[in-house]
Specification:
By secondary structure, the chain is mainly beta. It has one domain: Phosphoribosyl-AMP cyclohydrolase (Ubiquitin-like (UB roll)). The protein is built from one helix and eight strands, in the order ββαββββββ. Strands 2-1-6-5 form a four-stranded mixed β-sheet. A two-stranded antiparallel ribbon has the order 3-4. A two-stranded antiparallel sheet has the order 7-8. Strand 3 and strand 4 form a beta hairpin. The radius of gyration is 15 Å and the shape is globular. The N and C termini lie far apart (45 Å). The model has no long low-confidence stretch (mean pLDDT 93).
């Protein structure tokens, strides 16, 4: 029950072995831009800088979104799910591109008529 008092909550990184999914969503349009993972360090860096930082599972390192491309994600809001094991970042996508393929969104494949298609 919500009694109007703010709670000091943090993501539960231990529940999933140290990494939890983080969804980046355009704060203005609601478009889902990408899914990445955060660990405690990337989450804290995001809070400290106001820009999205993630943990790269393939490179095993902290990753500042847009550090090389310039397509940074400015944080406009951070939300945790009810179990504290997923993060929703509402962002301003600088440069308009979130996906490493050069597309606005990483979700550019669509299921239609029994087949999966790449949206061009």
């Amino acid at each position: 029950m919500d009694d109007g008092k703010p709670l000091k909550l943090r993501p539960d990184f231990e529940k999933a072995g140290g990494l939890i999914p983080a969804i980046a969503q355009d704060h203005g349009t609601g478009e889902v831009l990408m899914l990445a993972y955060m660990n405690p360090e990337s989450y804290q860096r995001t809070l400290d800088t106001g820009e999205a930082h993630y943990w790269s599972r393939s490179r095993k390192e902290l990753w500042h979104k847009g550090a090389t491309s310039g397509n940074i994600q400015k944080i406009k809001g951070i939300y945790l799910d009810c179990d504290l094991d997923a993060i929703l970042l509402k962002v301003e996508q600088v440069g308009g591109v979130a996906c490493h393929t050069g597309r606005r969104s990483c979700f550019h494949h669509r299921w239609e008529g029994g087949s999966l298609y790449a949206v061009v």
